Amino acid sequence: MTRVAPLTALITTASATIRRDVAINGGIRRLGLGPGEPHLLRRDLGGAPPSRFRRLTCFIQLSDLHVTDAQSPGRVEFLDRYGDADSEFATLLGRIGVYRPQETLTTQVVEAMARSIARVEHGPLTGATPEFALSAGDATDNCQANELDTYIGLLDGGEVVSTDSGELGRFDGVGSPEYFDPRYWHPDGGPDGRAPDLPRNLHGFPVVPGLLEAAIAPFTTLSLPLPWYAVYGNHDALLGGTLHPHGALVGVAVGGLKPVGLSTDADPLALLSDNQVAPSPALWGLLSARTRPVPADKNRRPVTTDEWIMRHLRGC
User: Fold this and answer.
1) pLDDT in tens, 250-266
2) Which domain holds residue 262?
3) H/E element holding 163?
4) Do the domain assignments include residue 51?
5) Is 6 contained in some domain?
6) Other beta carbons less than 10 A from residue 50's beta carbon
7) I need a surface site. Which of 174, 262, 284, 307 has the fewest CB within 10 A?
8) Is 294 contained in some domain?
9) What's the mean pLDDT in 132-150?
């Protein structure tokens, strides 16, 4: 496996923390280093600790990687607006959480994480060498086969990966300049004469021409420098982490029509009131939603639990 040079000084939360810096561009904040936080010995959980400690193991935990096919018709980004501050349903529904402006960059984030892990040579408290890594669930965002293959390729390394789907090299998800909707961040900017999208106008998101195409461009991964294991999460099993991918929804995910808005007779409150704890009886309105054409892709099919397990064991 490929290793990179170790950091000259291992930065942990004991030596430094990440803090928000001053706001720029109206809302976006850069991240900076703040003071470290010492380890806290919790005596309230089980009495006085023994006078001597014994290390059991040393491992690195990854969680909620959410590798995302941001172009998939099986996603419901259009529902997120019903939780926005200006929505009449906002106080009743709270945050919906089905659209994140940065979600096209998940492969790059996981690759950066793997490269950082490759630099960690010992645990900060015990000095022990990490023995393995653990992906603690929700490695994929929408339980799709192409997301699963990409996530495993990112951690195994030495593979060419991309979350591009549909027509390769062309971004057809929300945020594309061809389909302007002010609720989504459009890195290439909006049409001439139109007001900036809300992420730019309210939160200071930048204009970065070519970002979407760069985000789906394939690249060769480095790999984790140690064995890794995985835990099954709700997003690894369910569309959006909530809906069981039965036959009709599988057809939406792999098909050539992307839902872009609820039908005129749909009730957002009825669809989303129990979103955090229970599947929508009306399947989030996906089967009756307004749509636009996109290239179909069979690799967006949802995977079963057995298939998820066997894909991890391939090559073992």
Assistant:
1) 999 999 999 999 998 88
2) 16-38+59-313
3) none
4) no
5) no
6) 6
7) 307
8) yes
9) 95
